[in-house]
Amino acid sequence: MATTPSDLRYLPGFGNGFETEALPGALPIGRNSPQRCAYGLYAEQISGSPFTAPRASNERSWLYRIRPTVKHWGRFKEIDPGFWRTAPAREVKVPPAPMRWSPIPIPAEKITFLEGVRTITTAGDAGSQTGMAAHIYFATTSMVDDYFYNADAEMLFVPQQGSLRLATEFGVISIAPGEIAVIPRGVKFKVELIGGEAIRGYLCENYGGSFALPERGPIGANCLANPRDFLTPVAAYEDRETPSRLTVKWGGTLWQAEIGQSPLDVVAWHGNYAPYKYDLRHFSPVGPTLFDHADPSIFTTLTAPSETPGTANIDFVIFPERWTVAENTFRPPWYHMNIMSEFMGLIYGMYDAKPQGFVPGGFSLHNCMLPHGPDAEAFVKASAAELKPHKLENTLAFMFESRSPQIVTRYALELAELQHDYPDCWAGIKKNFDPKRKDWKP
């Protein structure tokens, strides 16, 4: 069992078969559904995979709760989704071009997380359980007596400013910039601010199969994201008889019902389908140690597979602190066009390929088969650099990369923070070709 400075307790390991109880003896021994559960609890199973999925990919947990979910139900009515959109959501047509946005300021008004989700892109089709959506989220106040679960998608939280507390029916998770959390599809939770500080971050909805650790291939047994560094919360429950609201995202629509109590009433649970957190600074990067530049896939932290081997529905890729040592090599990312579509954000620091205009809280979109790469300044600097070992410090960027083209929302297109001059960062790239000078230098 692991502890954090906040004194929250966690169970280490990725995808383990965990068991945890907040009251002694609340977990039944040797069976899942006894005739009578201890303490008058109800047994309920939540499945994240088909019942017949192979053992290695079968996801389910048994919950022992004060009331079953059917009792946390009511007459649902549709509510305004605000700026939250779900694929397919082609609201506007956008000419093919790389796009970038400056950070969106945190709203001044009082908003909870549910009111603060702003969709930037959608991809695929949530109804067929393929694709994703990339959002920015804000909150200036905690969810109080308000609870939520997403039936459409698994949710990956990437904080950029401010810490948050995710009170889930499996237990409590706290995360700060530099950490992530994943809430599985169907898991109830609420978002609370820590210390009253307003929050901003990135959010990925994964409509497809659950995130998993990528295969390491010839890298072997170690490095990248190690399973022991993932933390799952211990059981903690709310026994609160107070008027509350449950909001469910189902079929791309937000539905809300009045209920009479907190649904976070799980006293004990066991299984492998549960929320978790991970500190991105525990990622152990690998890279070239002699020459050339490896594909960004070496920085894949989590992957959501598709039905096509080797092709991800989503890859969550990070660019952390690391040493660059390659000889006779252009060290920043090379110019490229890619079948995968890349939504990129900067958590803190500077991204080496874009020293100007890409700042923490900002984000960019390089869609399927659209050209991108270092700006003119980065190209000249890297082409003339002394190739001694260099450490990229105080930097953390990431990508939500999908096999599905990402469609920009009307909200994102109409933002004042959209950098219409972004393509100008390549305007200074010069023609250097000279058939009489094989040994070109900048």
List keywords for this structure.
single chain; Jelly Rolls; seven-stranded antiparallel beta sheet; 2 helices; disordered N terminus
Uncertain segments of ≥5 residues (pLDDT<50)?
Answer: 1-5
Domains (count): 2
Counting DSSP H or I runs of 4 or more residues, the number of helices is 2
Helix content: under 10%
Q: What strand line-up does the widest sheet have?
A: 21-14-11-16-9-8-29
Write up what this structure looks like:
By secondary structure, this protein is mostly beta strands. The protein has two domains: 2-280, Jelly Rolls (Sandwich); 285-426, Sandwich (Jelly Rolls). Helices cover 3% and strands 35% of the residues. The protein is built from two helices and 29 strands. The strands form seven sheets. The chain has a seven-stranded antiparallel beta sheet. It is globular, with a radius of gyration of 23 Å. Residues 1-5 have low confidence and may be disordered.
Care to give the gist of this entry?
The protein has helices at residues 376-384, 410-413, and strands spanning 2-3, 9-12, 18-21, 42-47, 60-65, 77-79, 99-101, 117-125, 130-139, 146-150, 154-161, 164-168, 171-175, 179-183, 189-193, 199-206, 231-233, 244-250, 253-259, 266-271, 276-279, 300-305, 312-319, 322-324, 341-348, 363-366, 390-392, 396-402, 407-408.
SSE map:
Elements: E1 2-3, E2 9-12, E3 18-21, E4 42-47, E5 60-65, E6 77-79, E7 99-101, E8 117-125, E9 130-139, E10 146-150, E11 154-161, E12 164-168, E13 171-175, E14 179-183, E15 189-193, E16 199-206, E17 231-233, E18 244-250, E19 253-259, E20 266-271, E21 276-279, E22 300-305, E23 312-319, E24 322-324, E25 341-348, E26 363-366, H1 376-384, E27 390-392, E28 396-402, E29 407-408, H2 410-413
Parallel strand pairs: 10-18
Antiparallel strand pairs: 1-2, 2-17, 3-20, 4-5, 5-20, 6-19, 7-26, 8-9, 8-29, 9-16, 11-14, 11-16, 12-13, 12-15, 14-21, 18-19, 22-23, 23-28, 24-27, 25-26, 25-28
